[in-house]
Design a protein that fits this description.
single chain; 309 residues; alpha+beta; 3 domains; 5-stranded mixed beta sheet; 4-stranded mixed beta sheet; 8 helices; 19% helix
């Protein structure tokens, strides 16, 4: 076994970052200078595992204790995820590239928890009220966002709760929050009022204000508009045709000169249906109190976060 601090011989320093090169000098691990100073002060050994020339993971060993390089850099025992995956020659363990799996934040003035996970090959997250998160995890559950059935080509976030205890059974988180059994109420669906499958970072809003009980039919109505732009509109031979799907069948609403006119015809038709159907319908041009097509403002409020310790 080599000297514990031999890795320092392969360190290249800059003002804010440092690179730890492999013995051949063809691939590296990038860390912040602050992380480097802590490694030196704590007399740590750094091991980087390569698959071919690809650096796939790094470990920090101190006094027999082994930690991942990302956990050491973030100074956290919570699982840390990579924002950007390793490239062919570099593993980036700078803080700006690390995402703690659990973060505290505020949305609309209330305390929430953001839980990160891998969704369709990229990072996504779920938002949960802090009180619900604390209660459910105290019961022994582990909350995890995962990939659900894709919506319009976008990865969809489904939040599950695993456990408690030794069991590996998964329960849909929204059903736990709303008090709906997985088996006793098979015909009852928990509908997410606002969906965010096509936002820059896919996420699911599991707050109580965004959840409601529904039938399968009503749940299907609350979907974001179809391609290319508006719900219930398609183009054929230079004209834009509108159609709606009321309970029991499909209704054609005629052709229009513009997609906007066809989309408004779809909206107006749904407004003539029962209050229950209208409530679950997502509108192209929503009026006050109606569901919009576009995602809401939640993502912008999540910049002020703190890591869960």
């Amino acid at each position: 076994m080599g000297k514990p601090m031999a890795w320092l011989e392969r360190v290249e320093r800059r003002s804010a970052v440092a690179w730890i090169w492999n013995c051949e000098g063809t691939a590296s691990l990038t860390i912040d200078r602050d992380t480097l100073e802590r490694l030196v002060d704590d007399h740590c050994r750094v091991d980087v595992v390569y698959r071919g020339d690809l650096p796939v993971r790094g470990s920090v060993i101190r006094e027999g204790r082994k930690r991942t390089i990302q956990n050491f850099a973030a100074n956290s025992d919570e699982k840390i995820l990579w924002w950007k995956k390793p490239t062919s020659t570099n593993l980036d363990a700078r803080l700006e590239n690390l995402v703690p799996r659990v973060q505290r934040a505020k949305v609309d003035g209330e305390d929430v928890v953001r839980v990160w996970g891998t969704i369709g090959g990229r990072l996504g997250f779920s938002i949960i009220e802090a009180a619900d998160y604390d209660h459910i995890t105290a019961l022994g559950y582990r909350i995890r966002p995962t990939a659900g059935p894709p919506q319009r080509g976008f990865p969809r976030v489904t939040t599950v709760a695993e456990g408690p205890g030794a069991t590996t059974a998964q329960v849909t988180l929204s059903r736990i929050i709303m008090g709906v059994s997985e088996t006793d109420n098979e015909n009852v669906v928990v509908d997410h009022i606002h969906r965010h499958d096509d936002s820059a970072v896919p996420f699911s809003d599991e707050r109580r204000a965004n959840l409601r009980l529904a039938t399968h039919g009503l749940n299907i109505r609350n979907q974001q508009a179809s391609k290319p732009r508006y719900r219930g509109v398609h183009k054929q031979k230079g004209r834009y045709y509108a159609h709606a799907c009321p309970p029991g069948g499909k209704k054609r609403l005629g052709g229009f000169d513009s997609p906007e006119a066809a989309a408004r015809a779809v909206d107006n038709y749904y407004r003539t249906l029962s209050d229950e159907v209208s409530e679950f319908t997502r509108y192209n041009f929503p009026r006050e109190g109606e569901l919009p097509f576009l995602p809401s403002h939640i993502a912008e409020q999540l910049e002020n976060t703190s890591d869960e310790r």
